[in-house]
C-alpha cells in the first residue's frame, strides 16, 4: 500500500530516472578523486551556487558540522539563531566535533537582531573566546524564508569583523523559489553553504558543502578525518545530478500544494493554520478543538493510509513533496473532515 507521507520531505524516495542513472553511473574511488560522476556533481553544484568548489557529504548534519569544524578552532564561539537546526537537532555535535561554544541569539523566524549580533562579536580580551563563525539558516525550518536584506546586513557585520559566515541551506532551493531569485543571489551573503540533495530534491542520500577552493580543500581532509571519505560514490552522485538539474525546478509545485493544503485546512472548524509561515513546502497548524485533537492522532491517520508526525510544541506540521499531489491532499482533507464527525 502506498501511504500519503506528510511527515517530511526527507521521505522522498529516488525517482525512476534517478535509479536508472545510478545503475549506469561511471564510478571510481572518490578518496583518490577518481570518480568522474562525483566530480561532475561537485562541479555542477559549485557553479549552481556561485562558489569555487563543492564537496559531497553523507548528510546535512555532517555538512553543517564539517563547516563548523573547518572554519573554527576549539574553544571558538559560533553566533547563530537560538532555535536553528544546528542548535536544536544536531545532537550537540558542535561541542563534540569542533569543540566550539554555541552563542545562540534570540531570533524571530530565524532572523537575529543585527545590533545584538554586532554586540555579541568578541573583542580581544584575555577572558574571551574568539568569535569563529556566524551561521544563518535559509529556508528556516519553521516554514519561513530570510529576506535577502537580512542576510546582507548580517553578512556586512561579519565582514567588518573578518568573521566567516556559513549558511545552513538544507532547503536553499526552496528559499530561492519562494524569494523568486537565483540561489546565487542568496549565497552572495555567505562564505560557505550546505544544502541537502535528499529532501525535496528526492536523491536517496547526501548533501553538498560549498565554498572557496581553499575552504573545500581543508574540508575534504576533515571529511576524511570524520570517516566521510567514500569510495564509488558516483552511484549517489548520479542521483544528485538529477536532483539539481531537474527536481530543483519543480519545487514550486510543492509550495503551491502547501498553499492549497493550508487554505483548505484553515476552512476546517477547529484548525488554525499559521498563515505567516507558508513560504515553502510546509504547513504548520494548531488544533483548537479538543474533540478534534483527540481524533487527529498518528494512529487514526495511519489507519487511513496517511503518515504524520505528532505535534511539536503544540504545532502540527504537514510537508508537501514530489510524492504528494493535489488528489492526495484532497484525500487527507476528506479524512480530517470525516474525523470531525466523531
Ligand atoms: C534536514 C536539515 C538538516 C540536516 O540534514 P540531515 O541530512 O537530516 O542531517 C540541517 N538543517 C536543516 C535546516 C534541515 O532541515
Automatic annotation (TrEMBL):
Pfam families: Beta_elim_lyase (PF01212). The modification N6-(pyridoxal phosphate)lysine is found at residue 199. This is L-allo-threonine aldolase, PLP-dependent. It comes from the Bacteria. GO terms for biological process: glycine biosynthetic process; L-threonine catabolic process. One of its GO terms (molecular function) is L-allo-threonine aldolase activity. PANTHER family: L-THREONINE ALDOLASE, L-THREONINE ALDOLASE-RELATED. It comes from Acetoanaerobium sticklandii (strain ATCC 12662 / DSM 519 / JCM 1433 / CCUG 9281 / NCIMB 10654 / HF). It is an enzyme of class 4 (lyase). Its cofactor is pyridoxal 5'-phosphate. Residues 5-286 form the Aromatic amino acid beta-eliminating lyase/threonine aldolase domain. Belongs to the threonine aldolase family.
Amino acid at each position: 500500500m502506498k501511504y500519503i507521507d506528510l511527515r517530511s520531505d526527507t521521505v522522498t524516495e529516488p525517482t525512476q530516472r534517478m535509479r536508472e542513472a545510478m545503475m549506469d553511473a561511471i564510478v571510481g574511488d572518490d578518496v583518490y578523486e577518481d570518480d568522474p560522476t562525483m566530480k561532475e556533481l561537485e562541479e555542477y553544484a559549485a557553479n549552481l551556487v556561485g562558489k569555487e568548489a563543492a564537496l559531497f557529504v553523507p548528510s546535512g548534519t555532517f555538512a553543517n558540522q564539517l563547516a563548523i569544524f573547518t572554519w573554527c578552532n576549539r574553544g571558538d564561539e559560533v553566533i547563530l539563531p537560538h532555535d536553528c537546526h544546528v542548535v536544536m537537532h544536531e545532537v550537540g555535535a558542535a561541542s563534540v566535533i569542533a569543540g566550539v561554544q554555541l552563542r545562540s541569539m534570540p531570533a524571530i523566524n530565524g532572523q537575529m537582531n543585527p545590533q545584538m549580533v554586532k554586540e555579541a562579536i568578541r573583542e580581544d580580551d584575555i577572558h574571551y573566546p574568539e568569535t569563529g563563525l556566524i551561521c544563518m539558516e535559509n529556508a528556516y525550518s519553521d516554514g519561513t524564508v530570510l529576506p535577502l536584506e537580512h542576510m546582507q546586513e548580517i553578512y556586512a557585520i561579519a565582514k567588518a569583523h573578518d568573521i566567516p559566515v556559513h549558511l545552513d541551506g538544507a532547503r536553499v532551493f526552496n528559499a530561492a523559489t519562494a524569494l523568486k531569485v537565483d540561489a546565487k543571489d542568496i549565497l552572495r551573503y555567505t562564505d560557505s553553504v550546505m544544502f541537502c540533495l535528499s529532501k525535496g530534491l528526492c536523491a536517496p542520500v547526501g548533501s553538498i558543502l560549498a565554498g572557496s577552493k581553499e575552504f573545500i580543500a581543508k574540508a575534504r581532509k576533515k571529511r576524511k578525518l570524520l570517516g566521510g571519505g567514500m569510495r564509488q560514490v558516483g552511484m549517489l552522485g548520479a542521483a544528485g545530478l538529477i536532483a539539481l538539474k531537474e527536481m530543483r525546478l519543480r519545487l514550486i509545485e510543492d509550495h503551491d500544494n502547501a498553499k492549497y493544503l493550508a487554505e483548505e485546512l484553515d476552512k476546517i472548524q477547529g484548525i488554525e493554520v499559521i498563515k505567516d509561515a507558508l513560504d515553502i513546502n510546509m504547513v504548520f497548524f494548531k488544533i483548537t478543538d479538543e474533540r478534534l485533537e483527540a481524533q487527529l492522532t498518528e494512529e487514526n491517520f495511519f489507519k487511513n493510509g496517511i503518515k504524520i508526525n505528532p505535534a511539536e510544541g503544540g504545532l502540527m506540521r504537514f510537508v508537501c513533496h514530489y510524492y504528494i499531489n493535489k488528489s492526495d491532499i484532497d484525500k487527507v482533507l476528506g479524512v480530517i473532515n470525516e474525523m470531525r464527525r466523531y
